């Protein structure tokens, strides 16, 4: 069997496992991303995310993460929900409605790796779900799954951007896909709508101003300068995705593990303001929201309540 056949088999199995799409690129040094990442870090746009400075070389070369790596298999998994939170509520990014995506996707990647080993032969590789120094969006774009938009998210004409990106980096030579063209055109919807003006120029997001960073990554108090600018987001933010014209093509996912806890969608601002540790544990039992902890979510809610 040749590389083309192997690639087809892998993509068919990825679809069967529920992935939206699968693209493959050659495991190589990311030449274009290197100066961009360096400039972004020098401008301190990573805020308190000190880990972004670590493993600079590994972020740019997957062969330093997996011995003799030949291919990066990029995968997209849809998380766009059927139902949304009620209007009079503090807001949660849609990706956090259901169970923690890290566990859900790791399981699927494990199955895909097993399939490759059983059908193709002993293949060495590692699965990555945004928890290691891998530039997910860059690899997905290189694999032809979409283009990096002005809001720095991966966009696709068919389904927009409400999906997770993951990789399987393997020491198997495959048939490589080619990047697609940029279809943002003259649109500036995401730049105009960002409540904190975090998209400082097209394709460049100042992470230290992003609501997702302020509500999840930032461990200290939210700076006073953001009072009245948080648009009621208590965990993450979807504004730049919600306004993107390509997301009118988003379709609801069919992953049962991403279904929200029934209480989550019905909670009002008052309910959130009065949330107890017990309710937090129940509603977010296996959720990515646990990352910010009960105290972090309370801090965010208090900030929104005091500065609305």
Automatic annotation (TrEMBL):
InterPro entries: 4Fe4S_Fe-S-bd (IPR017896), 4Fe4S_Fe_S_CS (IPR017900), QueG (IPR004453), QueG_DUF1730 (IPR013542). Coiled coil: none annotated. [4Fe-4S] cluster 1 binds at residues 184, 187, 190, 244. GO terms for molecular function: 4 iron, 4 sulfur cluster binding; cobalamin binding; epoxyqueuosine reductase activity; metal ion binding. Binds 2 [4Fe-4S] clusters per monomer. TRNA binds at residue 219. GO terms for cellular component: cytoplasm. The active site is at 130 (proton donor). [4Fe-4S] cluster 2 binds at residues 194, 210, 237, 240. It catalyses: epoxyqueuosine(34) in tRNA + AH2 = queuosine(34) in tRNA + A + H2O. The keyword Methyltransferase does not apply. Belongs to the QueG family. Monomer. Catalyzes the conversion of epoxyqueuosine (oQ) to queuosine (Q), which is a hypermodified base found in the wobble positions of tRNA(Asp), tRNA(Asn), tRNA(His) and tRNA(Tyr). This is Epoxyqueuosine reductase. It comes from Maribacter algicola. The lineage of its organism: Bacteria, Pseudomonadati, Bacteroidota, Flavobacteriia, Flavobacteriales. The gene is queG.
């Amino acid at each position: 069997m040749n590389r083309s056949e192997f690639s087809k088999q892998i993509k068919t199995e990825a679809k069967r496992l529920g992935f939206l799409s699968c693209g493959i690129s050659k495991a190589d040094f990311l030449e274009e991303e290197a100066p961009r990442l360096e400039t972004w870090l020098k401008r301190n746009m990573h805020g308190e995310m000190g880990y972004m400075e670590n493993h600079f070389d590994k972020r740019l070369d997957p062969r330093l993460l997996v011995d003799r790596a030949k291919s990066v298999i990029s995968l997209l998994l849809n998380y766009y929900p059927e139902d949304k939170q009620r209007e009079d509520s503090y807001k949660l990014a849609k990706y956090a409605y259901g169970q923690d995506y890290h566990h859900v996707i790791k399981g699927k990647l494990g199955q895909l790796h097993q399939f490759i080993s059983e059908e193709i032969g002993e293949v060495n590789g590692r699965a990555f779900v945004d928890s290691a120094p891998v530039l997910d969006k860059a690899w997905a774009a290189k694999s032809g799954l979409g283009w990096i938009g002005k809001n720095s998210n991966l966009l696709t004409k068919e389904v927009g951007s409400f999906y997770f990106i993951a990789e399987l980096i393997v020491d198997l030579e495959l048939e490589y896909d080619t990047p697609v063209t940029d279809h943002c055109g003259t649109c500036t919807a995401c730049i105009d709508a960002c409540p904190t003006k975090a998209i400082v120029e097209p394709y460049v997001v100042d992470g230290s101003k992003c609501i997702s960073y302020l509500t999840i990554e930032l461990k200290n108090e939210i700076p006073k300068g953001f009072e009245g600018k948080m648009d009621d987001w208590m965990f993450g933010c979807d504004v730049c995705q919600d306004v993107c014209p390509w997301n009118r093509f988003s379709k609801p996912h069919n992953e049962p593990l991403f279904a929200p806890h029934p209480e989550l969608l019905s909670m009002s601002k008052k309910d959130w303001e009065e949330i107890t540790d017990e309710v937090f544990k129940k509603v977010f039992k296996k959720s990515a929201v646990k990352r910010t902890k009960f105290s972090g979510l309370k801090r965010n809610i208090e900030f929104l309540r005091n500065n609305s």
